[in-house]
Amino acid sequence: MPERGLLIVLSGPSGVGKGTVRKAIFESPDNDFEYSVSMTTRQKRPGEVEGVDYYYRTREEFEALIAEGKMLEYAEYVGNYYGTPLDYVNQTLDEGKDVFLEIEVQGAKKVKEQVPDGVFIFLTPPDLTELKSRIVGRGTDQLDVIEKRMEIAKKEIEMMTLYDYAVVNDSVPLAVEKIKQIIKSEHLRVDRVIDSYLKMLKEL
Ligand SMILES: Nc1ncnc2c1ncn2[C@@H]1O[C@H](COP(=O)(O)OP(=O)(O)OP(=O)(O)O)[C@@H](O)[C@H]1O
Ligand SMILES: Nc1nc2c(ncn2[C@@H]2O[C@H](COP(=O)(O)O)[C@@H](O)[C@H]2O)c(=O)[nH]1
């Protein structure tokens, strides 16, 4: 059986650039992570594709999946549910592949409780003014939603202490490189490689 893969959680406030950084990581020719597509009850935005950006479900469908224990985590964010389907994550980790989640902070906290040996990376904005201008510049949200996202962002930044690493997203290529380096180092941690060495010693 292959060694179980690593669960990588990229989180941080709305608009910091999680999606942009994650897409850049997955577009790298050397990428070998598997992306866990989330499920949401929010409306599909122009250009988004079912099964690629999200699985779009009704509230009733989402709540049924929660009741059946099919979500690794879920959170309600600005009036919609967002969550990580459990089976895909477990199957892919069991195949020895690293799974990458891009989720908001409440959900990341729940994942940490269940998978404490995951790698938890908090993406931070250079400052709050820049964060707001990124959300406004993206042009996907009405003013009231932008204000809600900014209020939530301030509380989320306070939760950074729950994470293993903080990466400032001042430049996308630099943030991508730092995240790749973090994951490479995590793979070399003694507690991750010790089992294979112990097995080798037993076989001597
Ligand atoms: N390093 C950066 N410098 C300048 N702009 C950036 C940077 N990273 C991302 N952006 C821009 O910021 C905006 C928000 O990025 P993105 O949608 O990736 O954020 P997000 O954290 O995934 O947001 P949400 O959590 O709401 O989905 C986008 O317009 C994106 O192009
Ligand atoms: N807890 C979870 N949060 C998720 C998941 N998938 C995405 N998200 C986060 O939700 C907000 C809003 O996303 P948007 O697409 O409406 O801008 C953002 O912070 C995402 O990272 C998930 O499965 N669980």
Summarize the model shown.
The protein is an alpha/beta fold and 204 residues long. The chain has 8 helices and 9 strands.
List keywords for this structure.
Rossmann fold, 47% helix, Guanylate_kin-like_dom, alpha/beta, binds adenosine-5'-triphosphate, binds ligand LQESDW3C, five-stranded parallel beta sheet
Explained architecture:
The chain is α/β, with parallel strands linked by helices. It has a domain at 7-36 and 98-203: 3-Layer(aba) Sandwich (Rossmann fold). The protein contains 8 helices and 9 strands. The strands form 2 sheets. The chain has a 5-stranded parallel beta sheet, with helices on both faces. Strands 4-3-6-5 form a 4-stranded mixed beta sheet. Helix 1 crosses helix 7 and helix 5 (128-138) runs antiparallel to helix 6. The longest helix has 16 residues, at 143-158. It binds adenosine-5'-triphosphate and the ligand Nc1nc2c(ncn2[C@@H]2O[C@H](COP(=O)(O)O)[C@@H](O)[C@H]2O)c(=O)[nH]1. Ligand LQESDW3C binds at residues 14, 18, 38, 42, 73, 75, 77, 82-84, 102-104, 106-107. Residues 14-20, 134, 137-138, 169-172 line the site of adenosine-5'-triphosphate (ATP).
What CATH architecture of the domain at 7-36 and 98-203 would you give? 3-Layer(aba) Sandwich
Strand share of the residues?
15-25%
Order of helices and strands: EHEEEHEEHEHEHHEHH
Overall body shape = globular
Count of alpha and pi helical runs: 8
Oligomer description:
single chain
Radius of gyration: 18 Å
Q: Which stretches of 5+ consecutive residues score pLDDT under 50?
A: none
Distinct small molecules bound, one entry per kind: adenosine-5'-triphosphate, ligand LQESDW3C
Summed over residues and divided by their number, the pLDDT gives a mean of: 95
- Tell me the CATH topology of the domain at 7-36 and 98-203: Rossmann fold
Strands, total number: 9
Report the helical percentage.
40-55%
Termini, distance in Å? 20 Å
CATH superfamily placement of the domain at 7-36 and 98-203: P-loop containing nucleotide triphosphate hydrolases
- Write down the CATH class of the domain at 7-36 and 98-203: Alpha Beta
Structural class: alpha/beta
